[in-house]
Design a protein that fits this description.
The structure is a single chain. About 70% of the residues lie in helices and about 0% in strands. The protein is built from 14 helices and two strands. The protein starts with a helix and ends with a helix.
Length: about 350
Amino acid sequence: MTTREALAIGSDTKPPVLFRGDYNMWRDRFLDFIDKQDFGEYIRLSLKEGPKVFTEEKPAQPDSDPPVAAHTVIKKFEDMTVKEKNRHKADKLAKSFMLLGLPNDIYFTIDSHNSTGKEMWDQIEKQMLGTSVGTQMKVTNIIKRYEQFKAREDEKLDDTYERFCNLLNELRKNGITKTKIENNVKFLTNLQPVWKLYSNSVFQNKSLADIDIHVVYEILKQSQYDVQDALDEKMKTEKEKTNTLALMADKRGKHVVHRSRARRNSSDTPEVSSDSDVDVAEFKQAMAMISKKQKAKLSEISDKLSIQEKEYNDIQKKFSALSDEKEVLLGHIKKVETMLLKRG
């Protein structure tokens, strides 16, 4: 546990410390801390109502010099009842605990010197929650996040469940409640596709109106190893596909280099390579290993490769024809040279 986490949680003798962004959690923990203290009930009242001033009526003293009329005075501590003394102590503790629960950056933003515990409590609440307009915008945002909730790619079930529970807690803290069936349907229909089979099983075999999200999670959790195996197999298949396509691209690149060299050396007779036949065989073998989902894409690649191979073969035929014409031309030149030598 980090130092910040320890301070945020507090203890039985020290109130939790407030950090920006954690107000709702801090408020719950602070009130829980108060409830465990002596005079906890009175401290809560002090935070809600402010310090209590206890007074007593003094009777008139007409015979005194000068005469004194009946009047009200503030009670001295020693004249208070036990309950009044407890409340008086609670008023002081309310402010003391508030001071202990504020870090310096927040402490300096409020008027703590002249404020009571209640006034500090109200200032903090307003500062952390904002105005009614700001609060409404915050609630709207939370509702929107609930409506758009969805498991993230490659997110584990535990993490999806934790995010969803945190979201439900935020809704409850802002006075918004959802029924069990609403939460269960939202969660089950927005898991990763690999969970679809198990989600459907829960839909068919459980009454979603009678169980809460925690029970749904425990049911799904029993199948997490099967799901993980499926995810591992999917990753393995995807890796094999990637490696296969990379190999095909590498071989296709070699063919392009070979054609380029063939064009530059058009005066030589090109050798007909059998690499194309080998590539086609390897490609067909790879096709058999890849899932049906990818065959449409690979079929398109295969067609393109076939067209390129046809173009390559056509070029080879043209080179062969040019080579034959070259031989014929050289033969004619040789005959002409022979005839000229004889005449000379």
